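As a warm-up, study this chain.
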Amino acid sequence: MVATVRKSGGGAQFNVNSAAVADILDVLARHNPGISRSVLKDKSKVVAALTAAAVRMSDEQQRQILAHENDLAAAMQTVVAGLAGRPTEKLIQLTVDKPVEVSLGAGLADVVDFDEGRRRLATYATPVRLEDWAGPVAGPGDIEKAFGTKRSTLHDWQRRGAVIGLLKGERKHVFPLGQFVDGRPVEGMSDVTRIIDNPRAAWQWLIQPKPSIGGTPLDRLKAGHLDEVIDAAERDFG
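Now compare it with the structure written out below.
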């Protein structure tokens, strides 16, 4: 499904499905190998929004548009350019009756080399154990004993982004236990990790309280509020 439509006082609003955006991004990346995925990400959202509008047209509307297929690209370019040039916020005009004071900062300090920077950082940076910020974690063997989940299944979940594995040491991965419900991954985790592709950043975001959604994203996922959490992740990382 490409999008859902929500009626409001200002008309219909399209909520573009993040999975659809990811699929379109894969297609654009395959056909545009010279352009980075980060550059194509916003373009994918534009294509997904246009596709969402197109699939909801009536058969008659589609026939009328296809009758002018040669002019379609130019018409879409005009529409998109018009939206891009539209201001996103109303500007407030302020009347200033005094001269504006321009404040200049003191500038940067002396540039130091890498080793000196590490030494200075170590004087006030405090090492923290992974368990102290991530909560209870377990390795594949302990998870297999606790839940009966085979290591191959766990690694497949991790590969697909359905569970988050955190690197402990140089190679070993451990898995926060809070992401499992009855031995299975919380529904919607793969949608979050598709948006937040760094495992540590994703887990930190999931377990920190977020007032705008009424709790931690992880708890809201467990309560079944998937769309709410995905929208929040898109706002923060999209």
